[in-house]
């Protein structure tokens, strides 16, 4: 089946773009964007999952206001024959200029939240180290990802009130990933196959994205329950057009404090060591959070990203996230909007921070 992508000179296999090289049902392609003002008053969070071997495309979009209310929407549809448009229900995505500008839209709908946002890159994109892993002889992890920092402009409407977004006041970050992901993390387990082994006694995940005026830094860290790094990829990046090459991050040290009886953190400090031996010490102050569980990350209301929901499905609502009980119930991989301080410089961005199972260093 031909699609509009087949007209571009970018084929990688002797086939058309309507399917990937593998038939593994875990193969997917994902897009994500978070945008926010420096106060944390308003956060937009949206993303898509393209699952060609499941014949599914899904997406989520939402907004948090004043750290009190989170509006969320979920949409899923049958992928084919509308395979060459990133569009599901009122959500759509468009590349305006490769590695520079993208557009993220949610048209008006019955859930009371909509937006039209254009992302413009400020920092050069960072390509992560590939993730690859096998379990019981089968490839369960084979992922490529890049992330990029920038600003946005446009508007957001929430229950009839419109907020204007300008590039001088709204910071943003996005990523794009593709490949095979562990089905146990997606929440979609195939029937009639040997279940995967337990992840282990526990682990810590940090996916951190910080943007300053003339530089940025990103890192992706997995540690086991003993605090040993099992995966680390990161870099100090510079503005688009800057002749300096990115500087790899080779070590991350961290120290976080938590709310009593909770795995949600309330303050933190990280020290990142670069390949040239230089260090950047950064303090983190959380401003607000968008809970990604409502986007189907690890499941929400019995829906998981990539799950077949029929020809078309939708859901949405709003939550009181100022309630600690609700916040703890939604705990998982969440986009925590932060103020970052490095010396006398102040920057903004997000961190996704998750501890599962045992992690004795922080008392879990």
What does this molecule look like?
It is a single chain. The chain is mainly β. The chain has a single domain, classed as AttH-like domain (AttH-like fold, Beta Barrel), CATH 2.40.370. The protein contains two helices and 22 strands. The strands form two sheets. Strands 1, 2, 3, 4, 5, 6, 7, 8, 9, 10, 11, 12, 13 and 20 form a 14-stranded antiparallel beta sheet that branches. Strands 14-15-16-17-18-19-21-22 form an eight-stranded antiparallel barrel. The longest helix is centred in the C-terminal third of the chain and has 6 residues. The radius of gyration is 20 Å and the shape is globular. It starts with 26 loop residues before the first strand and ends in a 7-residue tail after the last strand. The model has no long low-confidence stretch (mean pLDDT 93).
What is the annotated CATH architecture? Answer: Beta Barrel
Distance between the termini: 51 Å
User: Which homologous superfamily in CATH is the superfamily?
Assistant: AttH-like domain
Number of helices: 2
Low-confidence residue ranges: none
Q: Count structural domains.
A: 1
Strand content: over 45%
Estimate the global geometry from the Cα principal axes: globular
Give the arrangement of secondary structure elements.
Blueprint: E1 27-36, E2 42-51, E3 56-65, E4 69-78, E5 87-88, E6 91-97, E7 101-106, E8 113-121, E9 126-127, E10 131-135, E11 138-158, E12 161-165, E13 171-180, H1 183-186, E14 202-211, E15 216-224, E16 229-237, E17 247-258, E18 265-274, E19 279-290, E20 312-320, H2 324-329, E21 335-342, E22 345-357
Antiparallel strand pairs: 1-2, 1-13, 2-3, 3-4, 4-20, 5-6, 6-7, 7-8, 8-11, 9-11, 10-11, 11-12, 11-13, 14-15, 14-22, 15-16, 16-17, 17-18, 18-19, 19-21, 21-22
